Each structure stands twice: as C-alpha cells, then as structure tokens.
Amino acid sequence: MAHEETVYDALGNAQEDHGHWAFGTGFDEPLAGVDTTVPDGIDPAELGEYCLMLGDDALVLAQRLTQWITASPELEEEVAVANVALDLLGQARLLLARAGSVGVLGRSRERATESIPDEDALAYFRDADEFRCTALVAAPNGDFAQTMARLLVAATVRLAVFARLRDSRDPVLAAIAAKGVNELAYHRDHAARWVLRLGDGTDESHRRAQAGVAAVWPLLDDVFTATDLERRLTDAGVAVDPSTVRDEVHGVLTEVLERATLTVPAWPADAAPRGRLGEHGPELAELLETLQSLARQHPAATW
Q1: By Cβ atoms counted within 10 A, which residue in 66, 129, 143, 220 is the most buried?
Q2: pLDDT tens, 9-35?
Q3: Cα–Cα distance measured from residue 255 to residue 89, given in angstroms and rounded to the nearest whole number
Q4: Where is the secretion signal located (predicted)?
C-alpha cells in the first residue's frame, strides 16, 4: 500500500526535512513570488517596527481567542473562534517574518538560537515591553458577549487598515493585506452577527452585550493615535495612519450597535499610543507567559 503523507509527516518534513515547531510549517508559502526588496527611501528598521505593530496585534488577539477553546457556548462556535484565531495567527506569522527579514529582532536574538526562524524568535523570545500591540487586543476576554464586542471592534479597525494597505509601496505588506481582507471581513461579520443576536435577544443577553460594549469602548482611546513612525511611513506610501480610518470604523460600529438595540457609548478622547510604544499592563505579561512557556523551556525543540 502506498504511503500517504499525514499532517504529522508534513510537519516533520517541512523546512527541508528539518522538523520544527514554527507556525504553519508544512503549508504552502502564501508570499511566493512577491518582491521582498525594501522600497527605496524606506528605513528597513522602521518598516520592521511597523510590521511588529500589526503582527503583535494579530498574535495577541489570536492567543486571547484560543482561551475560548473548550469554553465556547456551543461546539460550532468553538470551531468558528478557533478558525478566526488561526487566520490571525497566519497574519502574525507573515508580518513577524517580514519584520525579521529586515533585521528586527530586538533582545530576542540574545535568547533565541540560530535554528529558530525569525518569526518564532519574535513571537516567543520577546518580553512584554518589546511587544507593540494595543490594549484593545491585550485586555482580558471577559464573558462571551464582551469577547464578541472586542472582536467586532478589532476586526473593524484591522479591516479598514488592511483595505488601504493593499496599496502599500511595500509589496510584502500589500500582499499580506490582500490576503487578509477576506479573512477580516469574515471576522467582523461573524462578530457582528453575535452582537446583533445578543443585543436584540433576551433581557439577560442584552444586558451582557451592553456591558461588554461598555468594557471594550475605553480600549479605543489610543487605537486611532498614530506614532511618529506610522506618520512617516504613511507619508512614504507604506503604512496607514490609523486616524484616517476613524470615521469609517465609527460608522460601522454605530450601525451594528444601533441595529442590535444597544446604546453606543461615548467615544473616548484620544490618548498617547501606549501599546505601540511598549507600555502595557500586567495582563499582557500574564498572557505571554502562557504563550511562550514551552518555547522558552525547550528553545531548540523540534517535532
């Protein structure tokens, strides 16, 4: 009987027969044929830092969503949440790989071994203050209604940014965005359906949905505030200034909440982009302890 390759064989045979525990090993390269040259006039370090911002948002939110595995309200939703997390994990891998390819490793190089791909070193061997994610994705889940409210907000913001990044002067960012917009549209719509279902449901589901929205809204205070780096890269045609998507995001979220018979909270005043600058609460360090523990205990492990 002919041998048929299993998923375990694919993992073991990836990377030229060198087993690895990296994200997505054994799968086709989605950026095959894309020009990876850094555009003229762009500082590679700044491009890498921007990729970290986008990649860290995806990685941390994916980890938050995996906390619902075995805890979701129904089996079908458990699969859906897992698929959303996998989409985000795939985006994180591509973005962190781009950051690593232009030389961004930070202090992780001191702790990582040469056998670990850059995206894994960046995911597993940076401390919390080296992460560039926003508080919107780092905050604890809360109950299911709060998780769906957070996913709705995060996916709406990210989709608006990625839709514009398809025109980025960096071919890699443009390709990642082109791949990600369909995924993010599904994430947004899936969360919106749950917010509608809960908000316009029973008295209890309405109460929980409103409380979830109230808990998530303050986390928007720094989401639309651009760093100096984001402004420079936006002027250079590479990045997207988050302030330019504010009106679109506000419009989408207002429409969903009103249809769900929920009160739209007051929009928070703009604040400094703390997360983008590496300033985080203790909840991120706690999350990373779980995410990174196995890799740090066995930094050269292979499957």
Answers
A1: 220
A2: 433 344 444 433 333 443 456 677 888
A3: 29
A4: none
